[in-house]
Specification:
- One of its GO terms (molecular function) is protein serine/threonine kinase activity.
- It comes from Trapa natans (Water chestnut).
- The protein is of the alpha+beta class and 397 residues long.
- The chain folds into 2 domains: 99 residues, Phosphorylase Kinase, domain 1 (2-Layer Sandwich), CATH 3.30.200; 255 residues, Orthogonal Bundle (Transferase(Phosphotransferase), domain 1).
- It has a 6-stranded mixed sheet, sandwiched between helices. Strands 7-10 form a two-stranded antiparallel sheet. Strands 8-9 form a two-stranded antiparallel sheet.
- The protein is globular, with a radius of gyration of 21 Å.
């Protein structure tokens, strides 16, 4: 009885601490300059009482609804579920990271709601979903992506990342650049979304030691193993994204032959054979500029080199993509291949099995930054496990 009472006190103390922290964060949101605070009633009205008909996406931490605000503005309303593992701190991180910055290739945060137990983010509505849904999902793809469109998407995302890495003070490392976090507006202009994992990066630091968070398949191996974060982790992820955009396929796929299953590995094999053109999405037909597409694939390989210090800055990548820097003579070293750090099985691989598995080709993970917590088996790479991020404000897979 005494023991039960003791744990009751501890539990009550934790609940009280959590409640006090929530109140503190609500007060912080209320006074945060540049952040509009919506009432829950207003957002409920905007979404037709969160009608299933208005649901446009679902992820590991809740649902996203299309809504019409009081002034007639269309919005994407991201509602974190009460059972969500995304805590108040992550909710606040997303607000504080993006509230005061604006760029044509970043999603626009209209405001938020932190009323009672409700945690809601309100973003600008983007008509054409995510790259994951619109370009890479062969079962649901309704838009034909020309080479010109793919080129502009690559350049747009690179510009957005260069802005975060080099222009914003302090710099920002996104930590979860992936196809489902790149949204497309009515003109297919890309917008980087989901800043729940973003880290502020002071310019006087060489790296940040932090728990590992991101998505396997896009995760830089040196960050996954050592937990030492730099902007080069985002650049690695962006390199994977370029390969996906040019090839029109996901970074991992069980449907393909074993040698082609992992996109980066297969791209490197083809590069060594001088056959990168085999990776170009055939659906583009004769309209594709094969030479330029192969150059983009090489840039993807340059961004994913095994040694982080060899990867270029994002502003350099923008220049490469625009053709202002010649990459033909570039000596590209071997990439950091996902299979090499995932083939060493750690406890985390066993812990992931059976948890919230979906048909996506990547899995989201978090760890402490030590080696044991950061290694996965190859089998785990082909499932989706939402443990740290909301997949996308439009990704409903």
């Amino acid at each position: 009885m005494v023991t039960c009472g003791f744990f009751s006190i501890i539990s009550g103390s934790r609940r009280s601490s959590s409640a006090n922290r929530a109140k503190g964060h609500h007060k912080e949101v209320s006074v945060m300059e540049g952040t509009r605070v919506f009432s829950y009633r207003e957002l409920r009205r905007a979404t037709g009482n969160f009608s299933p008909d208005n649901k446009i996406g679902v992820g590991g931490f809740g649902s996203v609804y299309k809504g019409i605000l009081q002034d007639g503005t269309l919005a994407a309303i991201k509602v974190l579920s009460a059972e969500s593992k995304q805590g108040i701190d992550e909710f606040m991180a997303e607000i504080t990271t993006i509230a005061d910055i604006e760029h044509e290739n970043l999603v626009k945060l209209y405001g938020c709601c932190a009323e009672g137990s409700h945690r809601i983010l309100v973003y600008g509505y983007l008509e054409n979903n995510s790259i994951s849904k619109t370009l890479l999902d062969v079962d649901d793809c309704t838009i034909g992506f020309s080479w010109d469109t793919r080129r502009e998407i690559c350049i747009g995302v690179a510009k957005g990342l260069a802005f975060l890495h080099e222009e914003v003070r302090p710099h920002i490392v996104h930590r979860d650049i992936k196809a489902s976090n790149i949204l497309l507006d009515c003109n297919l202009k890309p917008k980087i979304s989901d800043f729940g994992l973003a880290k502020l990066f002071p310019s006087n630091m060489t790296h940040i030691s932090t728990r590992v968070a991101g998505t396997v398949g896009y995760l830089a191996p040196e960050y996954a193993v050592r937990g030492q974060l730099t902007t080069k982790a985002d650049i690695y992820s962006f390199g994977i994204l370029i390969l996906e955009i040019v090839s029109g396929r996901c970074n991992t796929s069980k449907k393909l032959a074993s040698e082609e299953r992992f996109l980066l590995e297969w791209a490197w094999v083809l590069h060594e054979k001088g056959e990168l053109s085999r990776l170009i999405d055939k659906t583009m037909g004769k309209d594709c500029d094969t030479e330029e597409a192969c150059r983009y694939l090489k840039i993807g390989l340059i961004c994913t080199q095994g040694m982080a210090k060899l990867r270029p800055s994002m502003s350099a990548v923008v220049r490469m993509l625009k053709g202002e820097v010649d990459v033909e003579g570039e000596n590209i070293s071997r990439p950091g291949l996902i299979s090499e750090f995932m083939s060493l099985r750690g406890d985390n691989g066993d812990r992931l099995k059976g948890r919230n598995v979906s048909k996506d080709s990547s899995c989201t993970m978090s760890g402490s930054g030590n080696q044991e917590d950061s290694l996965f088996s190859v089998d785990d790479a082909t499932t989706s496990v939402a443990t740290m991020t909301f997949n996308s404000v439009y990704d409903d897979r």
